[in-house]
């Protein structure tokens, strides 16, 4: 995030989007960085409740196919919101906004019970590929569809994960269908490649992305993987890459996990080319993390 949400990017008041947000860890940290940046810009004056709510409503967005994960993400964002307020401020108005998108009929029902309820449409329980594929109401596409993000962050699925239930099976079918209809070649059914295409679809021209993805996006030699790289690197300016392959056992694994993450992965930061990026220098930083004896 430090390479993605730079001071210059934060100054532009970006809309940060995570298309596979899970429990919301990237969105929460993005929110915190936005708050801290604006705090510093105000000369150290704390943000009031109105300013905090404005960031949450206008600059944070996430999608996930797991309903429970979306609820956890909403809860985590509300905790982050409360963290930057003193108890007297919280007691003045204890109402929290509804962060999860809901249909108009449901919103009206809730308004009957609580007329002052606020609906931010920050989070959506859906398949992001269905959203960008137009298989959702127009209201949803306008908030979560093509070109709605200035920054995309996250840790989307890697490799070709086996579906655990029927909903995940249908989700994989939707990914394959979206890539085929968009003529997006994907090698070895690599989900990271599909999510890179999705990221480009979500980003406005000149937007920036910071993702943790399978290292196969850079190193796989199958023809479709090479075709993917040609399409990707033609459409973006790569800014920063960190290869974590040699230290992958140090991440996402501990004594409390049933399984270890052994797939090599990389961190990539890139910008979607626009009119102002078409002829820029294409050099980028490449780092490879190594274990040491220290």
What does this protein look like?
Helix content is 41%, strand content 19%. It is built from twelve helices and nine strands. The protein starts with 6 loop residues before the first helix and ends in a 6-residue tail after the last strand. It has 294 residues and is α/β, with parallel strands linked by helices. The longest helix has 17 residues.
Strand order of the largest sheet: 3-4-2-1-5-6-8-7-9
Q: Choose one word for the global shape.
A: globular
Helical stretch tally:
12
Helicity, as a percent range:
40-55%
Q: Which percent band covers the strand fraction? A: 15-25%
Nearest-integer average pLDDT: 90
- Parts with pLDDT < 50 across at least 5 consecutive residues: none
How far apart are the first and last residues' alpha carbons, in Å? 26 Å
Order of SSEs? HEHHEHHEHEHHEHHEHHEEE
Question: How does the major sheet shape up?
Answer: 9 strands, mixed
Structural class: alpha/beta
C-alpha Rg (nearest Å): 20 Å
Tell how many strands the DSSP assignment holds. Answer: 9
How would you summarize this macromolecular structure in one to three sentences?
The protein contains twelve helices and nine strands. With 294 residues, it is an alpha/beta fold. Helix 2 runs parallel beside helix 4 and helix 10 (191-202) runs parallel beside helix 12.
Q: Any key phrases for this structure?
A:
alpha/beta, 294 residues, 9 strands, nine-stranded mixed β-sheet
């Amino acid at each position: 995030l430090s390479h993605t949400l730079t001071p210059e990017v934060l100054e532009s008041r970006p809309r940060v989007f995570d298309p596979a947000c899970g429990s919301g860890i990237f969105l929460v940290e993005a929110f915190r960085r936005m708050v801290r940046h604006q705090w510093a810009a105000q000369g150290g004056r704390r943000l009031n409740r109105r300013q905090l709510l404005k960031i949450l409503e206008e600059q944070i967005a996430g999608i996930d196919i797991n309903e429970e994960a979306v609820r956890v993400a909403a809860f985590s964002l509300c905790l982050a919101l409360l963290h930057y307020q003193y108890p007297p401020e919280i007691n003045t108005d204890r109402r929290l906004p509804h962060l999860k998108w809901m249909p108009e009929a449901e919103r009206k029902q809730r308004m009957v019970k609580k007329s002052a309820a606020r609906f931010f449409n920050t989070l959506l329980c859906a398949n992001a590929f269905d959203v960008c594929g137009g298989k959702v109401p127009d209201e949803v596409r306008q908030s979560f569809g093509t070109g709605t993000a200035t920054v995309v962050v996250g840790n989307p699925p890697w490799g070709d994960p086996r579906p655990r239930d029927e909903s995940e099976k249908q989700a994989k079918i939707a990914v394959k269908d979206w890539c085929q209809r968009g003529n997006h070649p994907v090698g070895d059914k690599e989900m990271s490649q599909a999510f890179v295409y999705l990221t480009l679809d979500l980003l406005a021209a000149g937007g920036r992305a910071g993702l943790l993805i399978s290292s196969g996006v850079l190193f796989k030699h199958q023809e479709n993987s090479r075709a993917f790289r040609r399409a990707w690197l033609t459409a973006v300016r790569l800014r920063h890459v960190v290869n974590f392959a040699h230290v992958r056992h140090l991440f996402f694994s501990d004594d409390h996990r049933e399984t270890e993450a052994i797939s090599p992965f990389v961190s990539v930061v890139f910008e979607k080319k626009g009119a102002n990026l078409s002829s820029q220098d294409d050099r980028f930083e490449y780092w490879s993390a190594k274990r040491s004896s220290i």
